[in-house]
Design goal:
It is a single chain. The strands form three sheets. The protein has a two-stranded antiparallel sheet. It has a two-stranded antiparallel sheet with strand order 3-4. Strands 5-6 form a two-stranded antiparallel ribbon. Helix 2 crosses helix 8 and helix 6 runs parallel beside helix 12. Strand 3 and strand 4 form a beta hairpin. The protein is built from 18 helices and six strands. By secondary structure, the chain is mainly alpha-helical. The longest helix has about 35 residues. The chain folds into three domains: about 130 residues, Fumarase C, Chain B, domain 1 (Orthogonal Bundle), CATH 1.10.275; about 220 residues, Fumarase/aspartase (Central domain) (Fumarase C, Chain A, domain 2), CATH 1.20.200; about 55 residues, Ribonucleotide Reductase Protein R1, domain 1, CATH 1.10.40. It is elongated.
């Protein structure tokens, strides 16, 4: 161990650690989950520190030599993700993580300068690495960047999944089947109609996520502690956003109101809300697939989900819709994460919302779950879905709601009576209508051409 000091006094730090005293205190204080922030967030924060060093140097506040060393240290730190040890559940708006970054960069700088770890005489964590910054503007800025990067990955994955559902829609376009409303028989649809609607739903969700991503391009960097930009030189805010936009390849912009940008976590809350919408839609689709696949003898059994593993330790031959079930569970977790974000969002007080760490970690976790799982769901489930044409045909012909198609010819009341009689006698509505002379066989063929006229 080595001894480092901060404003509270001395504390032991592991000899080989690149972090310092404040990080060690936070590590000792916050042992809630054992989870640390993902590499995307670490990378975003280090790019931010590089941008700040460059902007400070251009503003004449930081010596060129120190700027170069800080930039090099940030680049080296990208390979030392194990040094960012603070738990995602931490107090102080993320000050602990910000200081973790500052200390790692400062100790790497000391190493470059031939000094021992903990010697901050030339490059200080607060005075130099954190120059013109506060946790209050840097942490949400890095959060926005990391979420945007993950959102880009998810959008590509959603596009591919929607395209797969579209392909299934085309494949099933000629398979006419019973529609269902209230889980009760309704007028006919095609299996293609159902799968096309799933694709449309995912495309609408992707549109919302793009909107949320664009809101996050507004970042509060340069607002420092309370929005006023105290301790930052003139022109710093514009310069640092230019540098950070270049490093992240994102068109970042300053907030319309820097004070609101620190008080409110509006952008993260909105994006989380859109993720929540996506999770609910995916949950609904997974439930539909499970229901349509149910059986094989006592359920709907209209579609056949791929068998990916045995389904029971006691019932031989049983196969369960495990990929859809797993998606359900992920969606439950994402919905729960959004509840966390919602509560944290309204917990801001006066000039600052201090709950940003839990909002950031929750959103990044939700994104990671979807990014990791949806490609497998697409490949192992959706791409291999088949349709049971015989079963669809059987259920369609026994559907009493086919009488709806006759209501404009014979009236609602007669159609309702015909539907009841069809159900009681087990005679398909078209046959019964012709048998009772309510319509001619030719008219029945015309009215029910979509039922009989397509291959099923």
């Amino acid at each position: 161990m080595r001894i480092e000091r901060d404003t509270l006094g001395a504390i032991e730090v592991p000899e080989n650690a690149y972090y310092g005293a404040q990080t060690r205190r936070a590590f000792n204080n916050f042992k809630a989950s054992g989870k640390t922030f993902p590499t995307d967030f670490i990378e975003a924060y280090l790019l931010l520190k590089k941008a700040c060093a460059r902007a400070n140097a251009e503003c004449g506040k930081l010596e060129e030599g120190k700027k170069d060393i800080i930039v090099e240290s940030c680049e080296r730190a990208e390979r030392l993700t194990d040094q960012f040890i603070v738990d995602v559940f931490q107090a102080g708006a993320g000050t602990s993580f910000n200081m973790n970054v500052n200390e790692v960069v400062a100790n790497l700088a000391a190493e470059i300068l031939g000094k021992k770890k903990g010697d901050y005489s030339l490059i200080h964590p607060n005075d130099h690495v954190n120059m013109s910054q506060s946790t209050n503007d840097t942490f949400p800025t890095a959060s926005h960047i990391a979420v945007i990067w993950k959102a880009e990955l998810l959008l590509k994955i959603l596009h591919d999944l929607a395209e797969t559902f579209k392909a299934k829609s085309g494949e099933f376009s000629e398979v006419v089947k019973s529609g269902r409303t209230h889980l009760m028989d309704a007028t006919p649809v095609t299996a293609g109609d159902e799968f096309g609607a799933y694709a449309s739903s995912l495309e609408r969700c992707a549109g919302l996520l793009k909107e949320g991503r664009d809101i996050l391009l507004e970042v509060p960097l340069g607002s420092t502690a309370t929005g006023s930009g105290d301790n930052a030189p003139e022109g710093f805010k514009e310069l640092v956003l230019d540098y950070l936009s270049e490093l992240t390849v994102l068109p970042l912009r300053k907030p319309a109101d820097p004070f609101e940008a620190l008080q409110s976590r509006f952008g993260l809350s909105v994006f989380s809300g859109y993720l929540n919408v996506l999770a609910r839609e995916l949950n609904r689709i997974a439930n539909d697939l499970r229901l349509l696949n149910s059986g094989p003898t006592t359920g709907l059994a209209e579609i056949i989900l791929p068998a990916v593993q045995p389904g029971s330790s006691i019932m031989p031959g049983k196969v369960n819709p495990v990929m859809a079930e797993c998606l359900n569970m992920l969606c439950f977790k994402i919905i729960g994460n959004h509840t966390t974000v919602s509560e944290a969002s309204q917990a801001g007080q006066l000039e600052l919302n201090v709950m940003t760490p839990v909002m950031t970690s929750s959103i990044l976790e939700s994104l990671e779950l979807l990014i990791n799982y949806l490609p497998d769901f697409q490949k192992l489930c959706v791409e291999g879905i088949g349709v049971n044409k015989k079963r669809c045909r059987e259920l369609l012909l026994s559907n009493p709601s086919l009488a709806t198609l006759l209501s404009t010819e014979i009236g609602y009341d007669r159609a309702a009576k015909l539907a009841r009689e069809s159900l009681e006698k087990g005679i398909p509505v078209p046959e019964l209508a012709a048998e009772k002379g309510l319509i001619t066989k030719e008219k029945a063929a015309e009215i029910f051409k979509n039922v009989y006229g397509k291959e099923s």
